[in-house]
Specification:
The protein is mainly alpha-helical and 57 residues long. It has one domain. Helix content is 56%, strand content 11%. It is built from 3 helices and 2 strands. It has a two-stranded parallel sheet.
């Protein structure tokens, strides 16, 4: 799953931060659970900004 997330982030130029809206979009487009994206971001110190629902910390 991490490789798929890494690929999606690389394609969008995401390195240090991601907008919540973009995380939701990646989740839908690639079929990745939102919590997996959150876990990946936490492990790789990628900040999630402009959270819509408080799902990401």
């Amino acid at each position: 799953m991490d490789r798929l997330i890494e690929k999606a982030f690389r394609e969008r130029g995401i390195e240090k931060e991601i907008r919540c809206e973009d995380a939701f979009s990646i989740s839908e487009e690639y079929g990745i659970p939102k919590l997996e994206i959150a876990r990946y971001c936490n492990q790789n110190r990628i900040k999630i900004r402009a959270c819509q629902l408080g799902c990401f910390r």
